[in-house]
Design a protein that fits this description.
By secondary structure, the chain is of the alpha+beta class. The protein contains two helices and six strands.
Length: about 70
């Protein structure tokens, strides 16, 4: 089931299935290692707050609005 990154619970991994956003947003996320097929794990986050995610050995903070555009399964 595909859902926004914001719906994953802390400690839960997911695979990026799609990213909704303009080319600049998608490119910025790709530069951070978040792209279709990437495994991400939510480390910390609450509704409305920034989400801390792990992508490989990297830790990234993503604002809530952007995290809603990252779809995972």
């Amino acid at each position: 089931m595909i859902k926004p990154l914001t719906e994953l619970k802390d400690g839960t991994p997911g695979i990026v299935a799609a990213i909704r956003g303009d080319a600049k947003e998608v490119s910025s996320l790709k530069d951070l290692g978040i792209h279709i097929g990437a495994e991400v794990k939510v480390l910390q986050g609450r509704k409305g707050d920034s989400i801390m995610v792990a992508v490989g050995d990297t830790r990234i903070g993503v604002n809530f609005q952007m995290a809603q555009k990252i779809l995972v399964h």
